[in-house]
Amino acid sequence: MFISVFGIVGAALALKNPAASGILQLISAVLGLFVGFFVAYFMAFPFLLIGGILALADPRKEH
Question: CA spacing 20 to 30 A to 29: which of 3, 41, 45, 61?
């Protein structure tokens, strides 16, 4: 459950700090897949993974 909180916090930070959001979501996805083998987490894994990748590849980066 603690790992899922990382994913929720990461999603909440998406607009303010996309890099931190992406890192938290990727950590949550990877740790949740390897540490918690819950059937319900297999549904959350792809969403956290995609959200983390998209947050790190934010097109709104300032140059």
Answer: 61
Determine, yes or no, domain membership for 62: no
Within-domain flag for 24: yes
Query: In terms of C-beta distances under 8 Å and separation of at least 24 residues, what long-range contacts does 28-37 make, across chains too?
Result: 28/3, 28/4, 28/52, 31/3, 31/6, 32/3, 32/4, 32/7, 35/3, 36/3
* pTM across the whole model: 0.79
Task: Output the tens digit of pLDDT for each of the chain's 63 residues.
Answer: 778 887 888 888 888 888 899 999 999 888 888 876 666 778 888 898 999 999 888 676 654
